[in-house]
Amino acid sequence: MKGRTIIQIVLGLVIVALAVVLYNSIQKPMRFDNEYTKRRDACAEKLKAIRTLEDAYKVTYGTYSGSFDTLFNRLMNEDSMKVVSKVINYDKIPADVDINEISELEAVKQGYISREEIFVNPVDELRKNGKLPIIDANGHKRQLTDEEIRNLRYVPYPRGEKNEFELEAGMLEKSGFFVPVFECRVPLTQLLSDMDHQLVVNKIAEINEVKGRYAGWKVGDMTQAVTDGNFE
């Protein structure tokens, strides 16, 4: 009787162990996919902000930047973006004229409105127009600070490592014309370097089955004049 009891206990432990192994074998890929998605979304937010800055750089300087130092320093420290300022000349508007009832073009022609070009700081202008948004830890939407802009260059994972996104810029010949292009990217081998190696290998192999698909996250492209992100 004692021997049978021992066998039953051992069998029970084996069943529990098998159940744990089976549970983990199911949960492990699910946890990987959840973490993969979280890291993709974190990269996407940074890459979209970098694209916004690159677009502002192109508008301001006529090309993209292949250097984070140049990109951030010039946009943050130079009053170099040309914008058109509209001034209403109230002293020139007759009492019987309602400026809201005529077109802006007509108002300019009559001298009621003046347009003048001024140079402003690109980052200040982006913030003014709400183009550098971030959701803080309290769930409030605000604009990126200078420090947060400088830290956009760093890949958000693995935590504690200061790996930088790869950034390139140049000119691409298209139909006899040269157009500026840029690309900012991070390969999955770097982004997922602290995760289960075999699951990372499997994910990359899955992506590589699609011809031309990049095994990582990026915005822009050095081979075509687009600024799309492959996460969009």
Overview of this protein structure:
This protein is an alpha+beta fold and 232 residues long. It has a domain at 37-79 and 145-232. The protein contains seven helices and seven strands; from the N terminus they run ααβαβαββαββααβ. It has a three-stranded antiparallel sheet. Strands 1-2 form a two-stranded antiparallel ribbon. Helix 1 packs across helix 2 (68-77). The termini are far apart. The model has no long low-confidence stretch (mean pLDDT 89).
Descriptors:
single chain; elongated; 7 strands; two-stranded antiparallel ribbon
Q: Reading side by side through the largest sheet, how are the strands ordered? A: 5-6-7
Order of helices and strands: HHEHEHEEHEEHHE
Q: Can you tell me the residue ranges where pLDDT is under 50 for at least 5 consecutive residues?
A: none
Rounded to the nearest angstrom, the radius of gyration is 28 Å
Mean pLDDT: 89
Q: How much helicity do the residues have? A: 40-55%
Distance between the termini: 66 Å
Shape: elongated
**Strand percentage:** 15-25%
What order do the helices and strands come in, and which of them pair?
Blueprint: H1 2-61, H2 68-77, E1 81-88, H3 104-110, E2 113-120, H4 122-128, E3 133-135, E4 141-143, H5 146-150, E5 166-174, E6 177-187, H6 188-191, H7 197-208, E7 216-220
Antiparallel strand pairs: 1-2, 3-4, 5-6, 6-7
Helix pairs in contact: 1-2
Summarize the structure.
The chain is of the alpha+beta class. It is built from seven helices and seven strands.
